[in-house]
Amino acid sequence: MLDDPKTSGSPLRREVQGLLRDGLKTHTAESLARLLGHADQRIRLRAQFEWVRRGNPAPLLTTANDPHASTLARIHALWGLGQLRAPLKARQLPLADPEARVRAQAAKVAGDLRIKGAETALIRRLRDENARVRFQAALALGKVGNASALGALVSLLEDNADQDPFLRHAATLGLSGLQRPELLAPLRQHRSVAVRIGAVVALRRLASPLLAGFLNDPHPRVRREAAIAVHDDGHVRWQPLEVDAARDVRLRRIRR
Predict the structure, then answer these.
(1) Nearest 5 degrees, angle CA 209-CA 196-CA 140?
(2) What pLDDT does 6 receive?
(3) Which residues contact 46 (CB under 8 A, 6 or more apart)?
(4) From CA 46, how far away is CA 43, in angstroms rounded?
(5) CA 254, CA 250: separation in Å to the nearest integer?
(6) Burial bucket for residue 134 (CB in 10 Å: 0-12, 13-18, 19+)
(7) How far apart are CA 120 and CA 109, in angstroms?
(8) CB-based contacts of 117, cutoff 8 Å, min separation 6
(9) Rounded distance between C-alpha atoms, residue 16 and residue 21, angstroms
(10) Are 237 and 193 in contact (CB under 8 A)?
């Protein structure tokens, strides 16, 4: 255990010891709001959980949207809203906040709560200057599952050009979350190798036989990804449907 004896009797440590010992059930709303931004993460989390136990999303919404509150307090307020599964609307979340960390967590909550009507704001966040915000927005769009996000997610893959693996992962999860393989299959004609690979990965997640159309891709990386998807898929059995003179193996899906 690491410790600094010089701070053993500091006011902050004494306060933390008291809060951990006594709990927060008797604290006022004003006190809990202050503790959401406490220097000690354990206290912030306990304040968040106490708000959730009380079951009232209004104070959490107020803190989450308060530009004068600390960033940490606003983030914990957003996490609390996610825990509460409160029936929120997109306009109630700070999705366009000046603070990037708040925007990112607001996008995450919008996805976790699958807020219908959040698609427009989340699509805008795919162009955010902050990569973490783009990441969370892409994941959220996959959870919301609105096909209107298709073009923006494709653009994210193309702009990323396989440079950031986290953004690539988020974009492919976003595409698969749309649950529309018939919209992904035409991406085999897309000019971007990164987009075509992303489409293969998304179709693989959907266990869709439409990924067979990528086996003839002109780029070896795309062909390889498609072949691996067919070979490694443990949920679907595949068998050759026909083989032409060019050895173009076409596959169909066979359910076990």
Answers:
(1) 85
(2) 66
(3) 19, 20, 23, 24, 35
(4) 5
(5) 13
(6) buried
(7) 15
(8) 89, 90
(9) 8
(10) no
- The DSSP letter of residue 58 is H
Segment 100-118, tens digit of pLDDT: 999 999 999 999 999 999 9
| Gap between the Cα atoms of 114 and 112, Å rounded | 5
| Residue owning tokens 């996008």 | 107
For 161: left if phi > 0, alpha if psi spans -120 to 50, otherwise beta; the answer is left
What rounded mean pLDDT belongs to the chain? 89
Residue 69 backbone class (left: φ over 0; alpha: ψ -120 to 50; beta: rest): beta
Q: What does the angle CA 95 – CA 96 – CA 99 come to, to the nearest 5 degrees?
A: 95
pTM (whole model) above 0.70: yes
Residue 233's pLDDT is: 65
DSSP string, 181-239: HHHHGGGGG-S-HHHHHHHHHHHHHTT-GGGGGGTT-SSHHHHHHHHHHHHH-SS-EEE
- List the structure tokens of 179: 């649950």
Q: At what angle do helices 193-205 and 150-160 cross, to 10 degrees?
A: 130
Q: Which CA distances in Å does 7 have to 3, 10, 20, 42, 250?
A: 9, 5, 18, 18, 70
Q: DSSP for 74-134, please give it.
A: HHHHHHHHHHHT----GGGS-TT-SSHHHHHHHHHHHHHTT-TT-HHHHHHHTT-SSHHHH
Token readout for 79 is 């996490």
